[in-house]
Amino acid sequence: MDFPKGPSFFYGLFLTFLLYSNAIEAGQNYKDALAKSILFFQGQRSGRLPLSQSQNLRWRSISGLADGSLAHVNLVGGYYDAGDNVKFNFPMAYTTTMLSWSALENSKPLGPQLENLRVAIRWATDYLIKCATATPGVLYVGVGDPNVDHKCWERPEDMDTVRTVYSVSRTKPGSDVAAETAAALAAASLVFRKVDPIYSKLLLRTAKSVFQFAAQYRGSYSDSLGSAVCPFYCSYSGYKDELLWGAAWLLRATKDASYRSFIDSLGAHDSTDIFSWDNKLAGARVLLSRWSLVENDKSYDSYKQEAQDFMCRILPNSPYSTTQYTKGGLMFKLPDNNLQYVTSITNLLTTYAKYMKSAKSTFNCGNILVTPNTLINLARKQASFLTLVDYILGDNPMKMSYMVGYGTNYPRRIHHRGSSLPSITIHPQSFGCEGSFQQFYYTSNPNPNILVGAIVGGPNNNDFFADERTDYSHSEPATYNNAAIVGPLAYLSGR
């Protein structure tokens, strides 16, 4: 359904707005939401958790200490991607890149949360370095058989499913996952450049090596690994977008002109109206536009134009908009885990607005003038009723926060194993692979453990959210949902 642009629609939207204006008037506490959005990552940790004073989500404990042993390597650590117990490196690397980008663009407004964000980033990069350096010529890209894991409902601490190790190599390439890993390591190297220069150099050195592998031995990891990653995290968009994204981050981290030459040689100029763990084109263009807007390098103007074309496809009043919005004002891209697209695109809105402000720049979508505030107003409550961050935090028809633990009305039955089962401190005995389905999966009782800060998949296209554990496409949180909202929350908390 095309987004209606007539006056009757906006009148209807105004009436919807009035229905929950009292909630809006109170405003959102962006600093509180920011802190919780980062705290969430403690609930996704795999490996040996730190001492209690730095592990605030106490219901989580040690897990996955033998990860990598089937391949005779150490792959302990990293994050579980969502509500399951699998470590998928493709979305994990994207998560890491987005967290690092948020840290780089918002170091001042992050305030005391900057150190917590660095900790969250390093939990991922320590693991990704292991994956990239454990065996010459091999990049490990995941741990845990997803097809077996998804038949179980058990805590990560109790995992008894096979921890199969997956990898790509010269004969079994994975340019997409390798280039995204390179992007994550390169971006993180900038985050740690001043505070830990030795670690920063290790990150950058590893990023260069992994990217060279991605560029030299081209192929999709979906083709190489098949059912181990599909349909869970297939590389639907191919690998050219990751090569562009990875090269752009290495260019920013090194200022090496060879990466610019590589970028120009790719010819990655397809139009897009989405940004996610799978499709990085829009993100790469916003990143590259920084040279045009902030550095005033006109040779990057074509990437700035492509970034603007993307914005014109997102803005609801643009004549070129290809983006639907619900009656309640939520951007709606796809039915499954729609909020991942909302948070990722909102990150681009606030980042590009920041670049525009630096350059005192505007642009046009047809006859519509777009200023930095045009993009910010879509991200937060101001002149526009179509507000994305505020919608997620509770300014919506259901008056529900889609961030767990934020506000008083939030999802209580999220699709998440560790959250839905009693913690190991309360119930030390294992529930087994299938023993807890009836008691803890199908029950209507709320989850016993609150995964504070988790952004769930969100409501449907009618602004309705059922809060049912079995409805994973709407009730499951994911690391990439959260990683993308950290930047917008930091930006808005500093305004």
Automatic annotation (TrEMBL):
MF terms from GO for this chain are: cellulase activity
Offer one Pfam family short name for this entry.
Glyco_hydro_9
Q: Which reaction does it catalyse?
A: Endohydrolysis of (1->4)-beta-D-glucosidic linkages in cellulose, lichenin and cereal beta-D-glucans
Domain called Glycoside hydrolase family: residue spans: 30-488
Q: Which GO terms describe its biological process?
A: cellulose catabolic process
The positions making up the signal sequence are 1-23
Please give the family membership noted in the entry. Belongs to the glycosyl hydrolase 9 (cellulase E) family.
Task: Spell out the protein name for this chain.
Answer: Endoglucanase
